[in-house]
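#structure-requests
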Amino acid sequence: MALPISPARLAVLVAVVLAPLIIVAATPLSSALGPTVLAVIATAGSVRRGAPAMWRMAASSALIALLAALAATTGDALPVVGTALVVLASLATSALPRLGLTSSGAMVVTIGALLVIKPVATPVDAAGPWAAALFVALVVGATTAWIAGVLSLALRGHRLPGPDLPTPTVPYSILLAILAGGFTLVSLLAFPDSNAWWTVLTVAIILQPTRDRLWSKLGARVLGTLIGGGVAAILALVLPTAVAPAILGFVALAANVVLTVRGAPYWQSATAVTISVVMLTFDHDQLLQGDLERILFTLLAAGVTALAVVLLGLLRSSRAATKSLE
């Protein structure tokens, strides 16, 4: 039987989990904040599968951060190298649907897309590409290792309800590789150094191993993005200082951790993630523009993903009909 986690214990747990992120945001380490936030979501999001799953996600996040940061230094070869990395990372998720780690793996894939589409500048760039890549990987790795360790210790003796593991009906990793790789390539060729990586994030989150879950996730993602985007837009207009967005971003991130542990409906988590990403990604004077970009990129990627799944279903039906006539 699952043991309840008291509100007080959960509040302390969330505060301890988010402490390293606050340190990253408030220091010169902040250049790696974007991939670190995604890695935190990947690691904390796998809490319902136990400590081993969290440690695997932490290690995977650090590794993809290292490889993507190195790929970002390949110059004219970046569209090919960056797309190949995202495709390979997507294919590597093939076992995750059977483990209930689809969403966490999606975040790891997105870390790669983020770092190749919008490379980060680090305090050690002058020391060379390896130094910069190691900087990003170490920040991501140290933060996620802390979170995996804290959650493992804090939840010892508590059994959280595990995710349902239905039989896959969608070629998940292949479709993820095609769509995430395609959006990465288009972004690198047409929208380099931009927030177009959100298209990959949307695809990676929406795609699910079964059609029912995929459509449910798509609806929840769009709903959460619209609600979160609306709240973020209002906040962008009324927030008085540059510090306030960061504070609210961490509050929203804390809410996402709580919602994940509690097993809340995904649209609520999507709302919290949208607010936190907008508040933590943009400067105060760019909040409204960035928020609108996020909504547009999300709707575009959701539409393309839905179209791809519909076409795949029609193709399978056509093949089945052809075989029945043979």
